[in-house]
Write a structure and sequence with these properties.
The protein has 22 helices and 15 strands. With about 600 residues, it is an alpha+beta fold. The protein folds into 3 domains: about 350 residues, no CATH class; about 100 residues, D-Maltodextrin-Binding Protein, domain 2; about 120 residues, abc- transporter (atp binding component) like domain (Coagulation Factor XIII, Chain A, domain 1, Distorted Sandwich), CATH 2.70.50. β6 and β7 form a beta hairpin. α4 runs antiparallel to α5. The chain is elongated, with a radius of gyration of 30 Å. The protein starts with 6 loop residues before the first helix and ends with a strand.
Length: about 600
């Protein structure tokens, strides 16, 4: 087994880390990526030092909190994304060192590091705020420490690297507890090394236990931040024990009673592996699995860890299986590095070392180019306005509205976290309260609206809410939907008056136009007066016409952002409605509103005027 402390290997590992970090920073997500996944939670929770979703990830939460408050570089979301890039690059460097510790050649260990570094799932998790880069970094650190310990045992050293391995396990338990899946193989490795060692080194049990338990102090983060709680409010409901044990997720194994269950056959994971690293690399892994078996303890450590993680990934039925397959994929990448080392060992006696290394370097370069083809996450096409469940969420525009101080914005969980994130990172109406709830059942959001009205607050919805139109009067407030106990009875002061009847039931009585934050567009807001009840559903087409009468842009909606159908309108009420149109330009033009039947498209009234 090569000495892992060799200066040249440490330098190569550092170069590999820097190269990986450069790749990840160049492809790093510039900010918020998605409102419906965990990355937004991690990007924001460091600012209020909130509690992440189960199992709490206290080590990661502590690092995010320190990052948010002590490193004033870039946007808050960018910092959290960059933290993943740092851990991922460290994991790649440690992969190289683990490969060297398993007697892989430098080109084989470097190949293993590159195979995992350029795999699409690992690359994607290295460029957004997620837990998996740190988890894989700790896994690699565990195997590195164990291999260093076995190296020290052969030379009669002490057990400091075994203590380091215990400390890494403790840190892993304080982060993502999948690290326990490596313990059976690690214990087997420990026993085999002790058994074949002539000196039979003493095990420093007290130091091992202390090293294992001390990192668990990070779990104090949860009770210490209980007054802040989790971003979804769930921590205060279930408490420390349930949160740490993730009792809510027990039905995810084998898909039993799991609404997200979508069981897949084992061949799915073979196809997934091929998609991540390619069939040729899988073939090299099979060769490496045989070649590395010459040294049984390291082989059992690696293959045992691959098997336990693979079985877990197959049993844990969740929509996105890729991240949970990463530890097994990491081990397969090391086996592939062993396969390349075996090929190198076999070819060297037949060819000169220079020719062998050159040929393998060319082969490796071609493999990596093929693997990297389309693997890099592409955030260039990220929409400036995020979308959740088909609805655009222009949070900056929402918070830029002149909302009353007693306002509460009620939306989905991701929308609420996004608004809180914007409130923390930009001076946008910080006094507004946000409430985030699941999509289903909609009754939860109805209850939140009713509670806000009862408390004297002014509730606003981020999207249509079934049932709200039957209980309250609704109106558009910029991009938001305002909920009123009683309908408007006078035109808002900021609107210019009009008097254009579209038919016997609806009269256009006011309008105004203003810009939309972060968009090259205008918002046309109008006020309808309901003259009599309406028995059928009507839609409205709002249009901007240029100086020649040509339609430049239009938006067709059920009134009030698809939330307030005409069948729910009350006679005598005033309704503020809003539409998104292209900019007016500097020469001429007019607005046109066409009211038509939703089912047939038959026009039943129109209005046109010049601003």
């Amino acid at each position: 087994m090569p000495r892992l402390s060799a200066l040249s290997d440490r330098r190569l590992a550092l170069l590999i880390a820097l190269a990986a970090l450069l790749i990840y920073l160049v492809t790093l997500a510039p900010g918020v990526v998605n409102l419906a996944d965990d990355s937004l939670e991690f990007q924001y929770l460091g600012w209020p030092a909130a509690i992440p979703h189960p199992t709490g990830y206290p080590l990661y939460a502590t690092l995010l909190t320190a990052l948010a408050h002590l490193v004033p570089i870039g946007e808050l979301a960018w910092r959290a994304n960059a933290l993943s890039a740092l851990f991922a690059s460290a994991a790649v460097a440690l992969t190289y060192l683990v490969g060297r510790g398993m007697a892989l050649s430098r080109i084989g260990a470097g190949a293993a590091a590159a195979f995992i570094a350029l795999s699409p799932t690992f690359w994607a998790n290295a460029t957004v705020a997620e837990v998996y880069a740190l988890h894989l970094c700790l896994v690699a650190a565990l195997l590195f420490a164990l291999l260093r310990w076995s190296d020290e045992v052969e030379r009669g050293g002490d057990g400091r690297w075994l203590i380091a391995a215990a400390a890494v396990v403790g840190l892993g338990l304080a982060h993502h507890r999948m690290i326990v899946l490596w313990l059976p193989a690690a214990l087997l490795f420990w026993g085999l090394i002790r058994r074949r060692s002539a000196a039979r080194p003493a095990t420093p049990w007290a130091a091992l236990v202390l090293a294992l338990l001390l990192p668990l102090a990070f779990y104090l983060y949860l009770p210490l931040r209980a007054q802040v709680g989790s971003l979804d409010g769930g921590y205060s409901e279930v408490g420390f024990g349930c949160w740490v044990t993730a009792c809510q997720y027990q039905n995810t194994f084998f898909g039993q009673s799991n609404p997200l269950a979508d069981p897949v056959p084992p061949r799915f994971f073979l196809t997934l592996t091929a998609r991540e690293i390619g069939w040729l690399v899988i073939a090299l892994a099979l060769v490496g699995g045989v070649w590395l078996g010459r040294d049984r303890p390291p082989w059992l450590l690696l293959v045992g860890g691959i098997l336990t993680n693979a079985l877990f990934a197959m049993a844990y039925v969740v929509p996105d299986r890729g991240p949970f397959w990463l530890p097994a994929l990491w081990g397969i990448a090391l086996l592939a590095g062993g396969g390349l080392s075996a090929v190198q060992r076999r070819l060297t006696p037949r060819l000169s070392p220079t020719l062998t290394n050159g040929a393998l370097a060319v082969l490796l370069a071609l493999l990596l180019l093929w693997q990297a083809r389309g693997a890099a996450p592409d955030y260039r096409a990220l929409a400036p306005i995020p979308v959740q469940h088909g609805e655009r969420v222009n949070g900056r525009d929402m918070l830029a509205q002149p909302l009353p101080e007693n306002s509460v914005i009620i939306g989905l969980q991701g929308e609420a976290v996004y608004l809180d994130y914007l409130k923390a990172t930009a001076p946008l109406t910080p006094m507004v309260r946000t409430v985030g709830l699941p999509t289903d059942p909609p009754g939860l959001r109805l209850e939140a609206v009713a509670s806000a009205l009862a408390a004297g607050e002014s509730p606003f919805l981020t999207r249509p809410l079934a049932g709200a139109e039957a209980r309250w009067s609704l109106s558009a407030f910029g991009p938001l939907i305002a909920v009123h106990d009683t309908p408007f009875n006078q035109i808002p002061a900021s609107f210019a008056p009009l008097a254009i009847p579209l038919n016997d039931a609806v009269t256009l009585v006011g309008w105004r136009s203003d810009g939309i934050v972060d968009e090259a567009a205008q918002r046309l807001s109008v006020v309808w007066r309901v003259e009599q009840p309406i028995a059928e559903s009507w839609k409205l087409s709002a249009r901007w016409l240029d100086g020649t009468g040509t339609v430049v842009g239009q938006q067709d909606l059920i009134p009030v952002h698809n939330a307030y159908p005409t069948t729910a309108w009350r006679a005598g009420e005033l309704i503020v409605d809003a539409y998104r149109l292209p900019p007016r330009g500097s020469v001429g033009g007019s607005y046109q509103l066409i009211l038509y039947r939703a089912e047939s498209g038959e026009e039943i009234g129109r209005a046109e005027w010049q601003p």
